[in-house]
Amino acid sequence: MTREARPDTTQLRVARLTKAHGLKGAIKIELYTDDPARRFVPGAVFTLQVPTTSPWHGKTLELAELRWYNSHPVAFFKGVNDRTTAETLIKAILWIDQDVSQETDEEDAWFDHQLVGLAVVRDGAVVGRVTRVEHLPAQDLLHVETESGEVLVPFVKAIVPAVDISAGTLTVTPPAGLFEELPDADDAPDQTSSR
Question: Does domain 112-171 have CATH number 2.30.30.240?
Answer without folding.
Answer: yes
